[in-house]
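Lecture 7 notes. Example A: sequence first, then its structure tokens.
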Amino acid sequence: LLNQSFSLSNVRDNIQQQDYSIVHIASHGQFNADLKNTFILMYDDKLSMDKLERLIGYTTIKDKPVELLTLSACETAVGDDRAALGLAGVALKAGVKSALASLWKVDDEATPAVIIEFYRQLQNPTISKAKALQNAQKMMLTDKNYARYRHPYYWSAFLLIGNWQ
């Protein structure tokens, strides 16, 4: 869902009507020690931790929990004593089996390269999510097409939380 279609009601309707094994949210957000000020931006609203938990909760009600939630915005795995692992931690609490999130501000050009390679690796059913992420990160180091992203800043922000299989 892009631009105007990335609304809270559209996301909720899609999650309620279809089974998704992977949900990817690529939007800017903010993590704050005050949970009321923690959110991901949507077109028409802010996706707070409570709203994210309710959205993901729909999948567990249907007995089809989301296998992987990717939060490729900046600092989506950053937490504190009140909200361990940030938005990704909330997703796990709500029933997602795994979350891929970032520990710091990510580069807008490098992030799609890492994530696309991660998904490409995931298409191999013999590779775990952890191995797919590792392979994607190694690709940033070794593939000449990604030479400009060799520095760890570009690829090492991503953290896989939950079920690594």
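Example B, a different protein, same format:
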Amino acid sequence: TDWINSLPGIPALAPPTLTPNGGSFVASVKVSAQQPDTNAFVYYTLDGSQPTTNSLLYNGPITLLDSATVSASAFRTDYVNSVTTSAYFMVRPLHFTSQSFTNHLFQLGFAGVAGSNYVLQASTNFADWTSISTNTAVSNLFELVDPEATNFPYRFYRVMQQ
């Protein structure tokens, strides 16, 4: 901050805010960067390095499919660049523990992040997805159930973290 104080009369930009602010996620996470100055540009990196105007320009939520350290800084002409905001996002792959039909119900054992919400969705064509159930993981392993599974000749599933 000493160099900021050595630039009298030049305003400094506030750092961007990352939402969520890091954490552990299953399969993917969308990261947003908010900057109070709407005339500033936010640049970011995914390897924890200091962003510059040659880094990636933020244009909307970033979808992470792998673990990364997101670092973001704000830039604007005639302003001192913001300090860098960084957060680590651990993205774990989906982990299905078992799947079976019991009493004509499709049951899926699933390992998720405790306290996170998950939606079980089903499709017959990989294009149109229907939400079957929403569950909050109470531990690292829980069950998702589709009571309508046997009503279709083919049924495909995905789990989305909310």
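Note on Example B: The longest helix spans residues 2-5. The chain has one helix and 14 strands.
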